[in-house]
Specification:
Largest sheet: 6 strands, mixed
CATH topology: Rossmann fold
Mean pLDDT: 86
CATH architecture: 3-Layer(aba) Sandwich
Oligomer: single chain
Helix content: 25-40%
Number of helices: 4
Structural class: alpha/beta
CATH class: Alpha Beta
Distance between the termini: 39 Å
Strand content: 15-25%
Number of strands: 6
CATH superfamily: Vaccinia Virus protein VP39
Strand order of the largest sheet: 2-1-3-4-6-5
Order of helices and strands: HEHEEHEHEE
Amino acid sequence: MKYELEYFERMLRINSGSAEKINLIRWEFVSSVRPRVVLDYGSGVGWFRAYRPEGVRVDTYDIGEYPQTGANSTFAYYDLVTFWDSLEHIADLDEIKPYVAGANYIALSIPIKPKETELENWKHFKPGEHLHYFDIATLDTLLSRLNFYSIKAGYPECPPRVDIFSGIYKRRIL
């Protein structure tokens, strides 16, 4: 899958009707951690930043061509790093390590296949686009290896979406 301007324009056309609703749900979901400086990793067209509360700085980073701010804090510190609909698209998950190294929290949304559904028949089965298929246990294991643990989990985006798990993970104090 090539994440070129055509891809982002298509996503903008397909999803703009629900963007405000979904991103307000996301801001409500993360409100308990009171983020002030956020990195939206895999920001796409920048909707999460567009709907941010007053006083919150959101840097945006994506591999695509859509305009973004970049990781302006040079990985030094973010209250929160988000991976909204992006973690499953990252070929080498080691590349996120520098971005989360100084973060207090990680928040994400990701498709989680229902146990009774065959992978090949699942709406989110997208070979070449979705490079990883997590269940909650493998997701928790990945984030544990990055020194984070789950503090909040659920399906707040469903509806309007289907099979989309959201979680907040906190940095483990050693």
